[in-house]
Request: fold
Amino acid sequence: MRAIYKREMRSYFTGTIGYVFLVLFLAVAGLAFCYTTLFSMSAEVGSFYIIMMIFSAIALPLLTMKSFSEERKSKIEQLLLTAPVSLGSMVLGKFLAAYTMFAGATIFSSLYFLILYRYAFIQVGILLGNIVALLLVGFVFIAIGLFVSALTENQLAAAVGTIGIIMAFLLVGLINTFLPASYWLRYVFDSVSIFTRFQTFANGYFDLSTVIYYISMGGIFLYLTYRVYDRRRFG
Reply:
């Protein structure tokens, strides 16, 4: 797994994808920080992380779109499948590399709030809750991206497919605004909505069920990615 992880991390910076992702992420984070805090003269952090969560739905597919599709297109997939590395290690190595990029960008962009700490009162609990929420959401997004990338050799198709699935999970929560308050589907949609559960952490509340939900969702998509390659190895 370590070899796969190092190889993926190196590929982000020998090519352009890693640089493009970091520049876009930090640039959008800077603009979001200026808009939600400096320009509005507010120390409220929730709006910043909601913007970054939505942007992550578009930016993270940049990291994952080539994870498996590039190898399939360049015909080196069989070399990986016959290499002395388990499929689980291969999937986890690629996942951890993408997650390292995302987590690093998230934590670095959160340092923007150190600027405010000297001039305004920041609720540290809510700030940490938002950081943890974004990291958990990124866990799910990256797992979805790896799964879609494993299904196709077209990087653009992988990126568009990933964004489509992520947006579906995000928009489920909005459907509730059009449903009667007593309708049972509201509970179902709230349970599976990534955005609705994100707001729990964003408001500073630690919800164990939400943590389990995000980890389970990410785990399911990582397992599906493993199964795709397991079938391909013996198919």
Observations:
- The two ends are 23 Å apart (CA to CA).
- The chain has twelve helices and no strands.
- The longest helix spans residues 124-151.
- The mean pLDDT is 84.
